[in-house]
């Protein structure tokens, strides 16, 4: 299975993380939605849940380097699929 990023590429979407610095769970989320949120210049919310072997820690590190605070990182992993193991564990890493 592929990530939402692959759907963005097929649609011709510009990457919202690279182009606009928008937080996006696309790299760690199962494809299937057709990249709806990024098509409207929003980051992926992770609706389809984490991919197998998703590297949420790496994505979080990238987002932190881009200036995202731990509180905001915690929030993005606690929206849809907050109880999915990968997202739950990554959000706990950012508890103060």
Largest sheet: none
Q: Multimeric state of these chains? A: single chain
Structure class: mainly alpha
Low-confidence stretches: none
Distance between the termini: 34 Å
Average per-residue pLDDT, rounded, comes to 93
What is the number of beta strands?
A: 0
The outline comes out as globular
How helical, in percent, are the residues? 40-55%
Given the structure, what is the number of helices? 6
Rg value: 12 Å
Order of helices and strands: HHHHHH
Strand content: under 5%
What count of structural domains? 1
Salient structural properties:
96 residues, mainly alpha, 6 helices, globular
Structural overview:
The chain has helices spanning about 5-10, 15-20, 35-40, 55-65, 70-75, 85-90. The chain is about 45% helix and about 0% strand. It is built from six helices and no strands. The mean pLDDT is about 95. It has one domain (about 5-90). It is mainly alpha-helical and about 100 residues long. Helix 5 (about 70-75) packs antiparallel against helix 6 (about 85-90).
Short description, anyone?
By secondary structure, this protein is mainly alpha-helical. The protein has one domain (4-92). It has helices at residues 4-11, 16-20, 36-39, 56-65, 70-77, 85-92.
Q: SSE layout and pairings?
A:
Layout: H1 4-11, H2 16-20, H3 36-39, H4 56-65, H5 70-77, H6 85-92
Helix pairs in contact: 5-6
